[in-house]
Amino acid sequence: ETFLPTTLAMCLLFSTLPLSTASMPPYNYT
């Protein structure tokens, strides 16, 4: 079962993506 860790990592990565963009307004406002 190597799919579990990969899916979890992907979910975590995608979960932190919006947080990173929200923390960096310059990219959003531009």
Essential attributes:
mainly alpha, 2 helices
Arithmetic mean pLDDT: 67
For the sheet with most strands, the description reads: none
DSSP strand tally? 0
- Describe the global form: rod-shaped
Strand content: under 5%
Question: How many alpha or pi helices?
Answer: 2
What value does the Rg take, in angstroms? 13 Å
**Strand-and-helix sequence, N→C?**
HH
- Helical content band: over 70%
> Span between N and C termini?
42 Å
From the helix content, strand content and strand pairing, which structural class follows? mainly alpha
This entry's quaternary arrangement is: single chain
Regions with little confidence, pLDDT below 50 for 5+ residues: none
Keywords: Mitochondrion
Protein name: NADH dehydrogenase subunit 1
Short summary of the structure?
With 30 residues, the chain is mainly α.
How is this structure best described in words?
With 30 residues, this protein is mostly helical. The chain has two helices and no strands. The chain has helices at residues 3-23, 25-29. The termini are far apart. The mean pLDDT is 67.
Give the SSE map:
Elements (H helix, E strand, L loop, with lengths): L2 H21 L1 H5 L1
